Amino acid sequence: MSRQPSRYAIHLMLAGGHQEVIHFRSLEAFQQWYGGVLTVAAPDAFVNVPISDLEAEYLVVRAGSVLGLRVEPLYSALEED
Asked: Parallel, antiparallel, or unpaired: how do β-strands 7-14 and 58-62 relate?
């Protein structure tokens, strides 16, 4: 019996050496955001990156500044500090 992740941490590697971690409840939600926003935008266009479960809280970056992604499944509840 395989475990199911409770959410996914997406590590964005940005131009200039910056990194940001965002969370999605499912892999499908991440794929929908990635395919619908990040890949279709022009490289110099601004895109909204949802950074938390709160509505209307976004990180705004240029699509071309995202140099890499790492998808990490999380198997426990997201711990709040």
From this structure: unpaired
The verdict on pTM exceeding 0.85 is no
Element (H, E) at 33: helix 27-33
Q: What pLDDT digit, counting tens, does each position of 8-51 carry?
A: 999 999 999 999 999 999 999 999 999 988 888 899 999 999 88
Query: Both ends of the chain: CA-CA distance in Å?
Result: 31
Taking a C-beta distance cutoff of 8 angstroms, is the pair 14, 65 a contact? yes
Q: Compute the distance between CA of residue 66 and CA of residue 59 in angstroms, rounded to an integer.
A: 12
